[in-house]
Amino acid sequence: MRWLADTRRLSALKQHQASCARKQAHGHRQAEQELREAAVAARLSGQHALEMAALTPENGLSRQALYERLRQLSEARAQVAETALESGRLDEQAQARAQQAQQAQAQGLLLERKQRKLDHWAKQMHRIARARLQRRSQEHTQEEHACRLSHL
Question: Pseudo-torsion of CA 42, 46, 48, 50, nearest 10°?
Answer without folding.
Answer: 180
